[in-house]
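Q: I'm building a small set of examples for a reading group on sequence design. Run inverse folding on the following structure and report the sequence directly after it, with nothing in between.
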């Protein structure tokens, strides 16, 4: 069975940053349109925090990208982090 198993996880803030840049939307403008603070948007883009389901709904309204997609990005990121952590633990045990 072929499957893609990356050894990295991409934070959803990276996708948000790409969408904003590709559409020429400034972070401050996006923040104002979603009701988030500019600081909150920066924290997401700088990979310091994830966004909530409520934020995902605001992203959908502002960008036209389904809230489920945004939530799916968060879920996929968190799942991949857990897989990488488990793999790291397993490798650590094997080295003993």
């Amino acid at each position: 069975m072929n499957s893609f198993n990356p050894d990295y996880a991409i934070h959803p803030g990276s996708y948000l940053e790409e969408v904003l840049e590709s559409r020429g939307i400034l972070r401050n403008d996006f923040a104002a349109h979603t009701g988030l603070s500019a600081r909150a948007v920066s924290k997401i883009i700088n990979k310091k925090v994830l966004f909530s389901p409520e934020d995902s709904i605001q992203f959908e309204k502002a960008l036209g990208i389904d809230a489920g997609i945004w939530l799916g990005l968060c879920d996929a990121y968190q799942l991949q982090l857990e897989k990488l952590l488990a793999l790291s633990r397993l490798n650590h045990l094997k080295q003993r």
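The CA atoms of residues 82 and 88 lie 10 Å apart.
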